[in-house]
Structure formats: C-alpha cells, structure tokens
Write a structure and sequence with these properties.
Four copies of one chain form a homotetramer. By secondary structure, chain A is of the alpha/beta class. The first copy, chain A, is 23% helix and 28% strand. The mean pLDDT of chain A is 96. Chains A and B meet through helix 6, strand 5, strand 6 and strand 8 of A and helix 6, strand 5, strand 6 and strand 8 of B.
Chain lengths: 261, 261, 261, 261
C-alpha cells in the first residue's frame, strides 16, 4: 500500500504575489506534490488553509501517513484546534515534515516546546546545504552538498531542542550557518525539519530538494497501526500486576478510578 | 548570590485529605522547601495554586532562577496564561524541575510537545531508583540506588522525547520499570523530570530524595542573564551581513519589516 | 536482494558443556540463524571463532550487510586484527548487532570507547524486557514486554555512551534494572546492543527474541554502497574550493601532500 | 582546591619550523597554559611528547582533573600504552579537551570508536565560529560568533558519533561548514572537541578562544573522586540480591568466580 502523503500549504503568497505565482503556478504545494508523485510508493494529495478545516478534517488526518507543512504569512490564521489535532495525530504515529518558515508554525512550536526562533535575511544569497550525516536515510542519493544559487538566510542560534540526529547544515554567502535538517520523534510520530524553501526562489523545483523530500517521507512513515490511546495513562490494577503484590499504605484513588490530568 | 528557588505546589491534597496532611503538615512544598533550605547556596520560597496568579506573577518569575513544580489533581485549574508564562521564562533561562504527577501538568506537556503519558498503580509497592549515570551532577553523593519502601508505580512506555541524558531508572515490586530521572534543555532553560514523590508516602522526607532535589537545583541553574529576546527572530539586514553581499532575486519583505509569525 | 546476514559465535560453551549443548545442539549461532532464516528477506550464514580468520576474512565481511556477534568466554581469543577489521567494516556501513555478554567483546568496546562494564548475577531469575519505545522499528510486533522465565541479571550502571535511542529496559526479579536495547551509529554503520541471551537458558528459542533479532537486522541494514574511504581525510585544494579564495598565511603542508595521521 | 589542568602538546612543529616558533615561542602548550593561568580557579601545567612517558606517567594522570590535547604530525609517535592509559583515566572521571588536529589522535579515536575523518584545506581562509547553543556553559561570555581571520578549513562530514550537544558550528570562506564544538561523556569523563587551532595561525592568542578553553576546563571537570573500578563488572551474589531470590537453572560460573572478559 502506498504511503498516503498530504502536502499542506497556506497558499497565500502564491495568490497575492504575481512573481511568486509565476514561480509556483500550481502553488508550492502543487510543486511539492508533483515532485513526490514521481515516486510510485507514494500516494500524494494536497490541502490548503482556505479549505474547510484547512483541508485537514479528522477523518482525513486519520488516513494520512505523512503530512508536509509549508506556512509563513498566515501562521496566525491556522486554528488552534486544528494545530492541536495535528499534534495528536503525530503522537499516534503520523509522520510530519515541516518546511522552511514552518519553524514558526503553531504545529512545530507545539511539538518542539521551545521558541523555534532564528535569524534571517532575504537577499537571494547563495546557500550550500551540506550533508553532514551521509548515512542517514534522508540523505540517500545526494552528493556532498546541495548548491542553491538563491536562498533566504536562516542563521543560528536556532532555538530548538537537541535533535535525534543532525542531517544537514547550511552555509550562507553572507556568513552564517544553520542546522537545516533535523530529526525528532514525538510519541509514535517521526518529525523532520528542513529549512530550504523560500517562496521567492525556485527551490522546490531543484531535483536534489525533491530527493530530500521523497526520502523524508519514507523515513517519517511509521507502518504501525495508529496508536489511538497514546495519550491515555491507564491504571494497572493491583490484581493485574505482573508480580503478585499486596497494597500497602493508603490511597487517594478509589479502585478503578481514572488518574487526574 | 544564592540561587533563587521557588517551590510550587497545587496544595490540594494536603488540605482535602487528613492522612496526607499528617504526612506533610506544611504541605509538600513546605517539606521540599525545608529540605532545600539546608543548602546555604539556595534562597528558597514557595508558591501555591490558590494564591493570586498562582503565586507566579511575572515580576516574581523574573527573579526566580529555578522553579520546582508539584501538581496532580488540579492541573486543569492552572491558567493557560500562567503555564505559557512559565514556559517563556524557561526559554529565557529559568531552570525547571518537574516532579512526579507533574508529568501531566500543562507546563511539562507544553515543554515536551509529546503526550507525557505512562502507566500507573497506587499500591504502596517498593520502588528502587537506580542511578544509571553516577557521574551526572544530579546523582552526586548518592549510592547505587535509592530504596523507597512505598512508591506509586509509574510504568513505561513514558511518552516523552528522548532526553539529553537518562540519570535514573526505577524498578517496581509489581514488575515494571520507569525512566525516573531525565534531563532536557528548552531554549536557555534546563529541565529535569524526577518521578518519585507520591502524596500518600513520605518520599519527600527521604534524605536521598533531598540530595537529588538539591543537586537538581544546582544543575538546572543557568547563571547567564535572562535571554529576554530568545523568542525574537531578528532580521539581519543585507548591509550588516558579515560578508559583503548584494541582493539577488525579489522579495516579499520590505526592508526593515519584521518577519511573519 | 536479500540482506546478507552473518551470525558469529565463539562457539565454546556449546562444545565444552553438555547442558548448554543440549539447549543449543546447533550452537547459539545455529539457533539464531534458524530464527532469522524464517524471514525470506534475509540471507543467513554463520561464522565461528575456530574457523580460519574466525570465519571473517575481509572478502566475506565485504559481502556482509549485517553481522551478529555472540561472545563470552573467549573474548581474549579474538585477534586484535580481526576486531579492527570488523570495526572498519562497520564504519563503511555494515550493521552490527551485539548480543548479551558481547558487551565485553573487543569489537563492542572498540566501537563504544567506554568501559562497557555492568553488574551481573547468574541465578536464572525472571527477566522482563519492557518495550519503552514501541514506535521504534526494532520493537515492531511486540507486546508491552517480553517475559523471560530465566535470565542472567545484568545491572546498571552500564558504562556505555548515551545512545541514539533506548528501545528496551529490563526488570529483574532480584531487584535490578538494565537498559537492554540501545542504538548507536558509528560512521555509516548502525549498531544495536541487545542484552538478553545467556547460554544456560533457552532465550534464543523465544519467539519474541526472534522478532527482535529479525527487526534489528532490518533496522541495522544500510542499503547504501560501502563507504570505502570513510576513514580518509581528503585535502580540498584551494583551486577546488567551492568559493573562490586565495591563500593567506603560511603553511606546513606542501600542495597535494596528504594530511598527518 | 583549584582544577588541576595539564596541557599536552606534541611540540614538534614549534621546534622544526621557525615561522611557527615565532608565533608560539613558548609552544602551543605554553600559549594555552598562559591563557588558562589567568583563571585563578585553575592550576595549570604542561606536558609534551618528548618527555619520559610523554609527560604522562600514571601518577601524574591520577592527579590531573582535566587534560588538554594538541597533536598533529606525531600522532603515530604516541605510545599505544599511554593512549590506553589516558582513555582509562577519562573513564574514571578525568575531563579531556581535544583540540584541532587532535581529531586524528589515538586517544580521540579510541574514545569515539568511529573514523573521526573530515575534509581539510590549509589556506588561511576566514573562519567564523558560530555559537549555536549560547546557553551551554562552554559558550559563556561569548558573542554570537568568533571571527578568525585565518583558519584551517575542516569540513563535513566529520565522522564522529552524534554528540550530547553541539555547541559551535564553523563557517569557512571557501564554502564549507564544520561542527567545531561537540560534547561527549565516556564513563565518568567529560570530553569536548574544539576544532579551531591550526599551528600556522595565532588562534591560541585570540581572547575568545581563551574564553572557550577556560569554560571548557570548568565544564569538563568532574569533582567526584576518581571511579577507580569503573572497568570492573562485579558479580552480585544471589545472597546479596536486593530481592530475595533462589537460584534456578544451571550455571557456567562457579560461586564467587569472576566474569569472563
């Protein structure tokens, strides 16, 4: 069964700005979806902010294996409820790939628990994305680095938790560096942040970027069934303890009572 | 200057339940504060849920180096605003020590970004807290393990991100194990989760637990001045780039404009 | 193409001790190889200490994707040269699964760089292997824990580096805990340590242990071609720098000279 | 009591090359020792390759809290026995700071267990060392980056294990990036690798580099007494088990017998 992949985009710049629309006539989501569709192991669709429930009703998320997130100008327009819904689905096992300015999306900040802040400059300067972990599955098929003639500078410090692994680090013409590919796990869900991808440059038309995105979908995919009660904190009754024990001391909980939360 | 330490407690069980009050006549916060006060390098005070702003107005948090958090029955009564305020202050550099049932507190869930769920049993069974990283500063002065005659069982899987380091793992009489001491960094703030500490047992009167708590305050303390703009994403203008560059391509941001968030 | 898997065993206990031979008439390597062979995606063979070059000539290692290592009594009989050869091959991308008493094997100590010491007791006590990271590929298909009626106790502290991820933690009847499943990466090679497996108990006949071993082979497998020059430190000549630079300062190296090592 | 710090240097370039001697008339070790001596909390001495036992007899290592290592041309002249001795002392709790070309030293390779390879270019190009973890104690007192007018390029991939934390990442004029500050723990010993420091540039005269080195000594210092038996794997006899158990099954070890290694 193919990996059910949804590419989410706020889709605002493309509608407001003719230059960006010229670069991405089908939207950034369209460009990414086309790139992913070249992989027959993926079943790809898109969703955008302006759709009902931002295109992410619970029923659809339940049938999504990996979600890709691109947002920038309209982070504040994403409903808190839907951001929390995505977070829950990640905990159950949905993979999530957060791109570029998505570092400040509600969903990424919820998952990281840290400021997710950085430094930036929009000057179309050269960006060189170095593969620092060539054996990571996300880097498969790449050369030593990806050369982007134009990138938005994102600079350290990047206020995210120490990752499981650092896959990419970017060099910028103006003098900065940035950890541009980082992996995390949250509950049963694999999370990958990948920073290249500004809306005013054709980054999502670059074949190496396509390779990274396809690899990342495969890496983020968790084939286990959704872990529906990952948020539950079940009581293990004394009589079901794996070792025979007898109750000692007193208690605030009545037998069978749910825990506090 | 001493480390300004605030012990926060919801202080509900102690008022509602005479048995718990008998164990902790000054409240769990009082017991912990007394234990910490034995260390002359610490300046210790307490705060509780029922106080205005839960005892945590911004002005007080700004003068707090390390906050200790005990909550259980009343997680839902903590205001979202104050939980977010504590999260911001952690990002600026305040240390945070989350105890026991605080695994389901708003502040811990905000910082972890994951379910923070676990299994549990309140049977007063024996708990043995093994020091698995004896060289970690939080384990200083301890023997190979801490023997607790009565503990609430917390069992794996514990749905938290992979920690920086695992310091303690607990063995339970009923057959479970639990990672009982875990370290994290969020922004400039050090975070330590320590699971022993149920309200119906005298755990906070145990000298080894006192040692852990004192060590943890020292470990969590970040002597750097508060990082007030840790959430900011400052633009680095082209003319201030460390390498001379000229703008290429087009732009969605006007010069000097703030980024989107 | 199937994953070429070699099960290595020192094969001493089975020959010296009739009780162990009765448990493992085909040797521990034979039992493991039989279990792995149930997976059609694996192509399994065995190697033992007494063979020429311990059954691990360079040509065979070059055609091995994943190596499984069981050793105990004869760690000292493994040649330093062959241990170093295996270490080099791991760096190039061969997966390595180190079992039980292999914690003190030359190859594991070489890869960890730390003492790899632990506490132990051979009393046939109950061991319960808890899955603490149920979403990790190595835990796929398991329930909450593996119950072993008899295990050799291995106790913390276990002197290994902090792992990429902790997958399993064991509970022992005698009161100890142990991190029984740990992942690492060394160069291009994935390394998994799994502690259950004492020679005097039928642990390698347990279906859940078979599941772990099969999963671990799949996890450890790196499909990339061997990284033959992973140990090289190539000079990048000035004229091949990705940015045009001119030499400044003086030099200890002549142009084209190899670096020191 | 001050932190007993030993600065070790192979001290070959300074004797063979007049230009280097002019930069470091007291040797690289002398320059570093002078910088550290500005901190009254440190008690600093030096050791060099040509001394008996490379200046590192066991008795001296036993009284060393933190060792700093600079080597390049003469890695092969360091005796295997002394490298192993240093590795053992690190496991017991001695801090170790490995500088620059020390990435290929015997001691660093022993501790990492991985190739420790990288790319390099000696062109005196500009290096900018970015502080990516400003809250780490090793970065205390630094600005956003350290500007080095001339550095030897070290480029990724750098074949070391994923660190506990990445503290610095360097930008190079010629287009590369490098993780220039990485922390590890091996046994009871804290290990820091810091890449700036080529012998043909005055890097060890830079005040920010002095700050890093002083901070690193404080960070690496483990105040606990030396863990003398960190390599031991003690048997825990059945009668001393913390839970009462009786022996089941058969055994390969006689009571009281040492384990195999």
């Amino acid at each position: 069964m193919p990996i059910r992949t949804v590419v989410w985009n706020e889709n605002v710049h493309e509608r407001e700005n003719a230059d960006i629309r010229a670069l991405y006539p089908d939207g950034i989501h369209g460009a990414i979806a086309a790139a992913l569709s070249a992989d027959p192991a993926l079943s790809v669709s898109t969703a955008t902010l302006e759709q009902p429930e931002h295109g992410l009703p619970q029923s659809r998320l339940d049938e999504t294996d990996v979600l890709i997130w691109w947002g920038h100008k309209a982070h504040g327009s994403v409903s808190d409820e839907i951001a929390a819904r995505v977070q829950r689905r990640v905990a159950e096992g949905m993979g999530l790939i957060v791109l570029h300015s998505g570092h400040f999306s509600k969903i990424f900040k919820l998952l990281m628990g840290s400021p997710c802040s950085l430094r930036w400059r929009e000057a179309g300067e050269k960006e060189r994305v170095w593969v620092i972990n060539p054996s990571h599955p996300i880097a498969r098929g790449l050369g030593p680095c990806i050369e982007l003639p134009n990138g938005e500078m994102y600079g350290e410090p990047f206020l995210v938790p120490e990752p499981l692994e650092t896959v990419f680090i970017s060099w910028f013409e103006g003098g900065e560096v940035f950890r541009s590919g980082l992996t995390y796990r949250r509950g049963a869900g694999n999370v990958f942040y990948f920073s290249p991808g500004h809306e005013t440059y054709p980054i999502y038309h670059h074949p190496d970027i396509h390779t990274v995105l396809r690899n990342a979908v495969h890496w983020a995919y968790n084939p286990a069934p959704a872990w529906k009660d990952v948020h539950a904190a079940p009581n293990v009754p004394v009589e079901q303890a794996r070792e025979k024990i007898t109750v000692k001391g007193f208690s605030v909980h009545k037998p069978g009572e749910a825990g506090y939360r």
